[in-house]
Amino acid sequence: QVQVVESGGALVQPGGSLRLSCTASGSIEDRYFKGWYRQAPGKQREWVASVAPGARANYASSVKGRFAMSGDNAKKQIYLQMNSLKPEDTAVYYCKIGPSAWGQGTQVTVSS
Fold it and tell me: Which of 7, 30, 48, 87 could form a disulfide bond with 36, CB atoms 3.0-4.6 angstroms apart?
């Protein structure tokens, strides 16, 4: 069972950038689903971006063009590069690898 830990969340000003990391305890294989989700206060968790096996990354319309997923299987990490951040991007961000490996989340706050 793969376990994952997110990191990189911080307080950032609108228009700023952050890169979130998700580190897995075991190997990350190309055949695994990899995704990022977020949950804002008082809202349900929502999908942000994901890569299905053999496919290209897909992004929610709210982040498309601003966020980008990448990964390094050798380092057992996946990343979420977030640019042009907006206050509405404020949320706890979670990564998911495979069918059920969720992290504990990392807080991103976009505020001046």
Answer: 48
